[in-house]
Amino acid sequence: MARETDRTANQALGPEGHPQKIMGRMAQFLNTSLVAAALVALVVIFGVTAPSFFSSTNVPTIFDSVAVIAVLSVGQAFVIITAGIDLSQGSVVALAGVIGASIMAAHGVFVGAILMVVIGALVGLFNGVLVAYTRVPAFIVTLGSLSMAAGAALLYTGGEPIYNLPSSLVNFGNGAFLYGLLPYIIIISIVAAIVGQIVLGRTRFGRSVYAIGSNRKAALLSGVRVPRVTVLVYVISGFLSGLGALMLTAYVNTADPGAGTNFELDAIAAVVIGGGSLFGGQGSVWSAALGALLLSVLANGTQLLGVSSYAQTLILGIVVIGAVFIDSFRKRSAV
Amino acid sequence: MIGVDKVSVRFGHTLALKNVTLHIAPGTIHALAGENGSGKSTLLKVLGGVVLPTEGTVIMDGKPIVLKSVREAIERGIGLVFQELSLFPHLSGFANIGIGKEPHRGGFINNRELQRSIEEVIQRVDFPQVDLTRPVGSLSIAEQQMVEILKCLFRSPSVILFDEPTASLTRRESSALIRTMKQLRDTGYTIAFVSHHLDEVFELADWVSVLRDGELVLSSAVSNTDQDQLLQAMLGKPLTDFYPSRHGAPSSHVGLRLKRVAAERLEPVDLDVYEGEVLGIAGTVGSGANILADVMAGWKLALRGTISVGEREVRMHGPADALRAGIGYVPEDRRDEALFPGLSVSTNGTLPLVSKSKSPLVRRGGILRKLEEQRSAGELVKQLRVRPLSTTTAVDNLSGGNQQKVVMGRWLLRDVPCLILNNPTKGIDVGAKHDVYEHVMALADSGHTIVFVSTYNAELLGVADRIAVMFKGKLLGPFMRAELDEERLLRLTMTGSTDSVGDPLSFEGGHYGT
């Protein structure tokens, strides 16, 4: 995307800039791929120091552990770029999961799956309408719906997990391509990230998302349909949370009303590591997904090296703050 | 006694004050007058410790003093009441007044003692009633200003400086404030204030000093001078040919029509602006010109009246409706209302066109035509001479003038028949100003309807075909450009008196021949 923008700008502006083109491209590549570079570095380090890192059992483990968070981080990226936040993602995963799973035995996997994403989208609609049309801040709205969705999931199940899910779902959740290296569910994450990045980077809607986050007043004066775009952003986040519920249910073979706790925090961390700003107007879906992968690789690698899970949690915190700290020094290419 | 001795202030390459010597007699009210940019506010800031003079000194009680900060000025008994109020909206009046000065015991604020000492101040100067128990955010602007003045008095100053104290007040509120200021003088305070209204100078001040281009050009007892003398002293250099010339002329078709449009602090306005016309709207800060511009752009909603573009009435519920009807807006506050910081020049320039329905930059399904977008942005950058000549750089990297060109260029890409410009040359350099004027002229020549709101009279006389004047929420005129000169326009904006130009209705409200 960046490359094309660069080329066409030079076309439009005539001959100038041609010698700087290569330098510009390199600078842009380095800027957008700091996360990717850090990710590669981590993979190399763990590959060398932890012999089992590249084993055929560990690689799918990493993918499985990142799949749901990556999908959530795509939705979270949309919300955060508008300068909002969605804290309800984790409990939407729980609520959509238990309701959808509970009807799968009677009505089939497909109907249950549809129900999950519909429930996710509905909670997103609730969040979005409140954020767009009232003066209640997004933080409070989604904090409230976090609690509401979590409570609803517990009420619906009486606190009991739902077992005995159809075998087709379980087979999907644990199947994989490429001799078991590439789980099916990570394919969903990759598709979500690609589609999300296209929508954000190449559509009018995506442009409006950046504009609202950068300056809401100016967006209004430029004719952007601010309330409508805001609602839609939360619907996307809710929809993807519902999709995450489906992936998680299929993978763990259970729908637990307590599932998904703190998932939203991991998703927010992934967006921020990917260069997203909580003040809005900055970030990308693709690098948010990479941020999620980075967190997952870090957790996995440190575990293989025998770091205790308590210390891991501590390290993750340092990485999040450190990423934003480093990010504050570099100049990002503008959208 | 307070004053300045041979004070010069340099901001970058410009001298805001040149060798000014001025003494303010104790127990008097001293007015500082002058055009925008004359240095009157800078002088006030030097006295208040906000600006440190490059050369010269502040004099207090015959001795030179150095004021490095507002805090030092307060400690020496100099209080400053800013135009922008510096209150905490969620705290009560009492809490705001006492802030940082609360009587306390063992770290706990003694609220009863605080209230008592504030009420003592109020009684001493016979201050008007303000409910100090309420959060100041819920008070009117005039009441908030009273709180601000009390906050200043609570720090027991001997000198109080006011920066355009009546700028955001209604007429009635202004006269109440003027009464209060006189009471303060009569209780022994020394007062200096900056004003945009000459009638206030005559009503309130004992002594008046006029600045022009940073120099003190007149200082006199108010009783020894008159409006004409002050206006002459205030007028700057003669008009140069800084302004580009028009090639076209206004048509007889109405492009934008306001019928009895009224809003808060805006008395009903009837106004026709013609296609191909640049209509200037003059007015000092707080005159309501800003409000009128915001109302025309749908940014503020009118309480009554109708706005029409061409023959069609606009159902105005917000800026989106104005835009759909063909009214583009260049707001006064670039940073806050116009720019998208962190986003590229291209995105900043093309967004209004991108968000248009049936936009040439958007394919079916909402997919952007990136090539077209870059071409449009490149066109904008070229036509308006934006520097640097890049569309991909973040708009933050541009100078103010170039940022403004990007904002104006939006309405070049999304062609709107009507354009409202609110102080478009504020805070930009001379070269960029010239480019803005040229662009405005070119738009008018090609038949656009332009409303050009400005606090800077000289530029209105340079670019406008007709000029209307906002004075205390009322629209005067419009007057034909030929009817006006700098002195007449200045008199209109500062006194609201139409004597020198005759009744605007006498030449049919400034109509062009039909």
Low-confidence stretches of chain B are: 505-510
Query: What's the total number of strands of chain B?
Result: 22
Overall geometric form of chain B: globular
Based on CA inertia axes, which overall geometry of chain A fits?
Answer: globular
Structural commentary:
The complex is a heterodimer of chains A (335) and B (514). By secondary structure, chain A is mainly α. Chain A has 16 helices and 2 strands. Chain A has a two-stranded antiparallel sheet with strand order 1-2. In chain A, helix 3 (34-49) packs parallel to helix 15. Chain A is globular, with a radius of gyration of 20 Å. The termini of chain A are close together. Chain B folds into 2 domains: 2-241, 3-Layer(aba) Sandwich (Rossmann fold), CATH 3.40.50.300; 243-326 and 448-514, Rossmann fold, CATH 3.40.50. In chain B, the strands form 5 sheets. Chain B has a 6-stranded mixed beta sheet, with helices on both faces. Chain B is globular, with a radius of gyration of 25 Å. The chains are: A mainly alpha (335), B alpha/beta (514). Chain B: GO terms for molecular function: ATP binding; ATP hydrolysis activity.
Summarize it.
Chain A is built from 16 helices and 2 strands.
Main attributes of the structure:
heterodimer, A: 335 residues, ABC transporter involved in vitamin B12 uptake, BtuC, two-stranded antiparallel sheet, 16 helices, 74% helix, B: 514 residues, alpha/beta, Rossmann fold, six-stranded mixed sheet, 33% helix
Task: Chart the SSEs and their pairings.
The complex is a heterodimer of chains A (335) and B (514).
Chain A: H1 2-13, H2 20-32, H3 34-49, H4 58-81, H5 89-102, H6 104-107, H7 109-133, H8 138-157, H9 167-174, E1 176-177, E2 182-183, H10 184-202, H11 204-214, H12 216-221, H13 226-252, H14 263-273, H15 285-304, H16 309-327
Chain B: E1 2-11, E2 14-24, E3 29-33, H1 40-47, E4 55-60, E5 63-65, H2 70-75, E6 78-81, H3 93-98, E7 104-105, E8 108-109, H4 111-124, H5 141-154, E9 159-163, H6 171-186, E10 190-194, H7 198-204, E11 207-212, E12 215-221, H8 227-234, E13 254-263, E14 266-274, E15 278-282, H9 289-296, E16 304-309, E17 312-313, H10 319-325, E18 327-330, H11 334-338, H12 345-354, H13 370-383, H14 400-413, E19 418-422, H15 430-445, E20 449-453, H16 457-463, E21 466-471, E22 474-480, H17 486-495
Parallel strand pairs in B: 3-10, 3-11, 6-9, 9-10, 15-20, 15-21, 18-19, 19-20
Antiparallel strand pairs in B: 1-2, 1-4, 4-5, 7-8, 11-12, 13-14, 13-16, 16-17, 21-22
Helix pairs in contact in B: 12-13, 12-14, 13-14, 14-15
